[in-house]
Amino acid sequence: MFDLVGIILHLDTYLSAIIRDYGLWVYLILFLIIFLETGLVVTPFLPGDSLLFVAGTLAAVGLLNFSWLFIIFVVAAIIGDTVNYWMGHHFSKRVLEKGKIRFVKKEHLDSAYHFYEKHGGKTIILARFLPFIRTFAPFVAGIVRMKYRSFASYNIIGGLVWVAAFLTAGYFFGNIPIVKDNLGLVVVGIIIITVVAGLFGFLRHKVQKK
Questions:
Q1: Could you read off the pLDDT of 196-206 as tens digits, one per residue?
Q2: What is the model's pTM?
Q3: What mean pLDDT value characterizes the chain?
Q4: What secondary structure, in 3-state letters, does the chain show?
């Protein structure tokens, strides 16, 4: 856990070292990190927002190619969510057969189904900006069998907007002296802001529901 925190706090240093040691292979490594972070429910702890921001920062100083980064990140994000959706879709067969799943009540799945029917598109897009929720949203969408055509459209839009937002922010603001000198704190700030925003949205939904 402490190693992961250290990596997140000094992501610029680690990524610079990876670029130095592996050269062009770094693009494949970055692709795999984003794919795993968005595509597997067991790896939501991998860096997402912070990785995009730091990669944009390094692209601004010429260590990475911005266009290549944009393409591989968008493709990784879209494929990751797609795989996650179909895993949930496959897993839902057990739910339909048994009528329940361990630790999850059937009525909760029914509520999730109706929620995705009404707010599915918005959920898929907004979830991109929320750590952990970003990993679970497509899986749940698959479990409740959200229409794939709708999911795919919002998946593409969400992937494009998410990558563009953080990669561009890193590119234009990551090398401002005060940001560069406190990059670790900036990364933590990004994580805290996105988590707080997610909690605020969840609480507001709960209040409106009541």
A1: 665 665 555 55
A2: 0.80
A3: 79
A4: CHHHHHHHHCHHHHHHHHHHHHCCHHHHHHHHHHHHHHHCCCCCCCCCHHHHHHHHHHHHCCCCCHHHHHHHHHHHHHHHHHHHHHHHHHHHHHHHHHCCECCECHHHHHHHHHHHHHHHHHHHHHHCCCCCHHHHHHHHHHHCCCCHHHHHHHHHHHHHHHHHHHHHHHHHHCCCHHHHHCHHHHHHHHHHHHHHHHHHHHHHHHHHHC
